[in-house]
C-alpha cells in the first residue's frame, strides 16, 4: 500500500451513471488486477474504495458508478484536480490459477477490474472469453475495449436491448471454459455458483472503514478462517467461500 | 527543543500519542507502512478470553466528521493473541504497549488479564467496560458505578501492572463511575469510548448497520470527550488517557489542557493510516506555536 497525491488527467462519462477517470501518479504498489484504491474526498470522513480498471507505469484508470453522495461528488471533479489516494489495496486475481480458456464474468459496475485482468491473461498467452452483463443498452461500457485486447466478448442485457437477452448466466450456457473470474452484484454470484462447471475466483464488495485491514469493518467467514474483504480479499477462491 | 515526554502511571513514554484500540490492529499492520516507534505507545485490539468473529456486516456507516462502527470485538482470543499477535508486535515496537481487554463476566476479565500479565511488553492494562456493540457485556459494566468498581477490583487482584479503566460516555454521570473505579484500585481512567448512534439507509429505509446501532467516533465527538475529561479530572487524582476525535497535534494539546496525561488517536487512523505518525511528528511544532516547552506541564491547564 502507498499513499499519494494523484492528478486527474482525464475524466468523462462513458455510460449511464458511469464515469472513467485517469489519474497520474505512483503505481508501484499495484501488484495484481482486482486490487483497489481508496479515495479521500473533501468533506467525506471515510475514503471511497474503487477497483482499479487498468494501470501503467504512471497512470491508474478507474471506472466507477455514481451510487451515492461520494461518487456523485467525484463525478464533478475536473481535469488537473488532485486527489489523496491509498493505492494497491487488497489481494487481486491470481492469474496462475486461471487455466488456458478462462471465462470472465462482469455484472454492471463489476466489469472494470476484469479489464486489467483480461489484459494480463492475454499477455500470458491465455484465451479469455468475456461476458458483460447489464440491465439495458445505455448502461453498456468497455465492450470495444475488451475486443481490442483480443478477447471474445458476449454482452447480455436483462431487457434484451443489446446482445443476449437475459443474465450473464444465460450467456454462460454452452460455453467451453476451464476457469472463471467474476465481479458484480451478489445475486449474480449466487446464480453463477449454481451453474459454474469449474473452479474460479469471486471479487466481493462490502462497506469498509479503512480499506487496509485495520478496523475489522469488512470481515467475513470463509472455509479457511476469518478474512477481511479489504485485505485478504476482495478476490476469493470459489472453494473457500461460505455462501 | 521541546520536551514531549510524559509519564503515564509511572511508565515514561517519549510522547503522549497512543493509537486507540480497534483502529490499529496489533501494530504490525501499520509497521508495514511506517516505523511505529515514533509513537508513544499503542493500545492493541480489544482482546477477550475466547475468540470472537464479532457482528454481521455491514459494520461500518459513515457520518459527518466521523463514523459508526459495530465490529463487536472481533479478535482471535487471548491465547492466540499471546502466541501469534504479540510476537509480531514485539518485532516492530520496542516500548511498552497497552493491553486492551474486554469481557462478559468478572471471571472473563480476570482470566484474560491473568494470562496477559506475564507478557513483559505490556506496560498497562486498559480494561474496556464500555463496548457499545456487544449485547450483555462490556458496556453493562461501565454504566453502573458498582459494576465498574467490581471489574476494577477483580482485575486488580491478578496484576501489579497499572490498570486503566476505559469508560463509556453513554451514561448520565461519568464522574461517579470514574470515582468508583479509582476507589476500587484503578491506576488510571481512559475516556471516552464511542457514543451509541445510528444511521438509516434511505434506499432500504432500514438501519445501515446489521447491528442497527453502533459506536460513533471521529472529530464530531471531540467536544463531548473534552467535557468529560474536564469533569473527571476535577474528581479523581489518577491520570486520564483522553480520546475522542483527536486528529491533529493541536487536538492533543487541547485534550491535555482538559486533563489528559496521554491521548489516544482512533478514527483518524482509519481515514489516514499515517495519522498517528503525523500527529506525533507535528507535536513539537504545535507546542512551539503555543509557547509550550514541557508538554507534561500543561496537563489540566484549563482548570
Judging by the overall fold, what is the CATH architecture of the largest domain in chain A? 3-Layer(aba) Sandwich
Q: What is the N-to-C succession of helices and strands of chain A?
A: EEEEEHEEHEHEEHEHEEEE
Rg of chain A, Å, rounded: 17 Å
**Architecture of chain B in CATH?**
Alpha-Beta Barrel
Q: What would CATH call the class of chain B?
A: Alpha Beta
Task: Name the beta content range of chain A.
Answer: 35-45%
Largest sheet of chain A: 7 strands, mixed
Distance between the termini of chain B: 26 Å
CATH class of the largest domain in chain A: Alpha Beta
- Total individual domains of chain A: 2
Structure description:
The complex is a heterodimer of chains A (243) and B (303). Chain A folds into two domains: 2-89, Beta Barrel (Elongation Factor Tu (Ef-tu), domain 3), CATH 2.40.30; 95-203, Nucleotide-binding domain of ferredoxin-NADP reductase (FNR) module (Rossmann fold, 3-Layer(aba) Sandwich). Chain A has five helices and 15 strands. Chain A has helices at 69-75, 112-123, 143-149, 168-172, 186-195, and strands spanning 2-15, 18-24, 36-40, 48-55, 59-65, 82-89, 102-107, 129-134, 152-157, 164-165, 179-183, 200-203, 219-222, 225-228, 235-237. In chain A, strand 11, helix 5 (186-195) and strand 12 (200-203) form a beta-alpha-beta unit. The two termini of chain A are 29 Å apart. The model of chain A has no long low-confidence stretch (mean pLDDT 97). In chain B, helix 3 (106-116) runs parallel beside helix 5 and helix 6 packs across helix 7. The longest helix of chain B has 15 residues, at 275-289. Chain B has one domain (6-54, 73-198, 216-298): Alpha-Beta Barrel (TIM Barrel), CATH 3.20.20.70. Chain B has ten helices and 15 strands. With 303 residues, chain B is of the alpha/beta class. Chain B is globular and about 50 Å long. Helices cover 32% and strands 19% of the residues of chain B. Chain B has a seven-stranded parallel β-sheet with strand order 3-15-14-9-8-7-6. In chain B, strands 4-5-13-10 form a four-stranded antiparallel β-sheet, with no helix packed on it. Chain B has a two-stranded antiparallel ribbon with strand order 1-2. The A-B interface holds A 1, 3, 40, 44-47, 86, 206-210, 212-221, 226 and B 22-25, 29-30, 32-33, 45, 53-54, 57-67, 69, 71, 74, 208, 218, 267, 269-274.
Amino acid at each position: 500500500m502507498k499513499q499519494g497525491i494523484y492528478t486527474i488527467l482525464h475524466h468523462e462519462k462513458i455510460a449511464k451513471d458511469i464515469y472513467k477517470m485517469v489519474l497520474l501518479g505512483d503505481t508501484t504498489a499495484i501488484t495484481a488486477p482486482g486490487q483497489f484504491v481508496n479515495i479521500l474526498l473533501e468533506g467525506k470522513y471515510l475514503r471511497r474504495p474503487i477497483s482499479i480498471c487498468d494501470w501503467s507505469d504512471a497512470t491508474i484508470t478507474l471506472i466507477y458508478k455514481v451510487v451515492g453522495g461520494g461518487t456523485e461528488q467525484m463525478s464533478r471533479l475536473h481535469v488537473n484536480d488532485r486527489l489523496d489516494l491509498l493505492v494497491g489495496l487488497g489481494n487481486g486475481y491470481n492469474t496462475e490459477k486461471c487455466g488456458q480458456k478462462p471465462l470472465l464474468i462482469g455484472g454492471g459496475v463489476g466489469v472494470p477490474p476484469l479489464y486489467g485482468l483480461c489484459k494480463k491473461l492475454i499477455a500470458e498467452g491465455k484465451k479469455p472469453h468475456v461476458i458483460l452483463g447489464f440491465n439495458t443498452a445505455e448502461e453498456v461500457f468497455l465492450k470495444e475495449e475488451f475486443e481490442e485486447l483480443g478477447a471474445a466478448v458476449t454482452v447480455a442485457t436483462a431487457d434484451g436491448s443489446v446482445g443476449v437477452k437475459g443474465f450473464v448466466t444465460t450467456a454462460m450456457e454452452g460455453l467451453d471454459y476451464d476457469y472463471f473470474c467474476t465481479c458484480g452484484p451478489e445475486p449474480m454470484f449466487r446464480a453463477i455458483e449454481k451453474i459454474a462447471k469449474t473452479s474460479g475466483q469471486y471479487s466481493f464488495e462490502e462497506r469498509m472503514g479503512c480499506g487496509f485491514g485495520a478496523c475489522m469493518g469488512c470481515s467475513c467467514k470463509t472455509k479457511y478462517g476469518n478474512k477481511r474483504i479489504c485485505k485478504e480479499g476482495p478476490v476469493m477462491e470459489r472453494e473457500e467461500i461460505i455462501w | 527543543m521541546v520536551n514531549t515526554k510524559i509519564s503515564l502511571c509511572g511508565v515514561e513514554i517519549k510522547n503522549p500519542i497512543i493509537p486507540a484500540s480497534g483502529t490499529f490492529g496489533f501494530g504490525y499492520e501499520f509497521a508495514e507502512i511506517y516505523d511505529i516507534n515514533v509513537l508513544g505507545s499503542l493500545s492493541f485490539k480489544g482482546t477477550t478470553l475466547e475468540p470472537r468473529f464479532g457482528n454481521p456486516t455491514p459494520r461500518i456507516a459513515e457520518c459527518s466528521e466521523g463514523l459508526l462502527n459495530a465490529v463487536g470485538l472481533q479478535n482471535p482470543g487471548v491465547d492466540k493473541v499471546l502466541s501469534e499477535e504479540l510476537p509480531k508486535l514485539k518485532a516492530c515496537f520496542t516500548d511498552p504497549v497497552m493491553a486492551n481487554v474486554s469481557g462478559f463476566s468478572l471471571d472473563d476479565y480476570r482470566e484474560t488479564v491473568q494470562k496477559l500479565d506475564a507478557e513483559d511488553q505490556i506496560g498497562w492494562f486498559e480494561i474496556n467496560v464500555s463496548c457499545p456493540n456487544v449485547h450483555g457485556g462490556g458496556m453493562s459494566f461501565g454504566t453502573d458505578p458498582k459494576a465498574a468498581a467490581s471489574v476494577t477490583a477483580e482485575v486488580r487482584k491478578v496484576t501489579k501492572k497499572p490498570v486503566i479503566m476505559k469508560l463509556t460516555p453513554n451514561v448520565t454521570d461519568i464522574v461517579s463511575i470514574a470515582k468508583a473505579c479509582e476507589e476500587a484500585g484503578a491506576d488510571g481512567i481512559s475516556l471516552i469510548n464511542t457514543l451509541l448512534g445510528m444511521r438509516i439507509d434511505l434506499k432500504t429505509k432500514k438501519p445501515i448497520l446489521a447491528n442497527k446501532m453502533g459506536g460513533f467516533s471521529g472529530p464530531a465527538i471531540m467536544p463531548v470527550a473534552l467535557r468529560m475529561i474536564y469533569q473527571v479530572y476535577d474528581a479523581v487524582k489518577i491520570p486520564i488517557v483522553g480520546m475522542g476525535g483527536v486528529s491533529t497535534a493541536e487536538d492533543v494539546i487541547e485534550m491535555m489542557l482538559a486533563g489528559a496525561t496521554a491521548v489516544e488517536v482512533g478514527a483518524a487512523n482509519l481515514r489516514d493510516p499515517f495519522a498517528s505518525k503525523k500527529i506525533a511528528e507535528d507535536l513539537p511544532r504545535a507546542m512551539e506555536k503555543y509557547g509550550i516547552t514541557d508538554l507534561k506541564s500543561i496537563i489540566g491547564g484549563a482548570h
